[in-house]
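Q: Give me a protein?
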Amino acid sequence: MVPPGTPNTAAFMTISNSGSSDRKLLQAESPVARKAELHTHLNDQGMMRMRQVADIEIKAGAQTELKPGGYHVMLLDLQQPLKEGDSVTLTLRFDDGSTKEIDAAVKKPQTVMKAPTPATARRDEALSKKHLLRPLESTRSHAAAIAERRKSGTSCASKQASAKPKHPSAVP
């Protein structure tokens, strides 16, 4: 749940299905919100966008995690301020007609990014060496070079066209 004074919030949880048939979460309700919707985040041309979904599938014998950046229950037009430590009742309705009432704890959103693990730090360093990730200074100097070319009327394409192509076996 998000901080006080916000008109909307999101609920995150893990839903388990111990049955032998797949289930779908179809709807959520809460007395603290005028409306509750099922949402997900989608990558739309490089931009993460939140979208409403008709249902959220929970496979038989598995769990589906509702988490930031993924599926979640969006509570819209909150009817009362929420404080950290409060508990919010949610009623979840499934495709088999069953309902599950849960109490969700109101928590501050996590705004601190996790520190990279040694493995991800090594991966990022290796990618950086291959020029897949540019250091910030390189990005700034590249932007400055583009701005200079625009002022002088020289484009990157004209510089590339005049360069001799490398032999295919020389390309890493």
Residues 88 and 104 are 5 Å apart (CA to CA). Helices lie at 118-129, 136-152, 156-162. The beta strands are 9-11, 13-17, 23-29, 33-44, 47-52, 56-58, 62-66, 72-78, 87-94, 99-105.
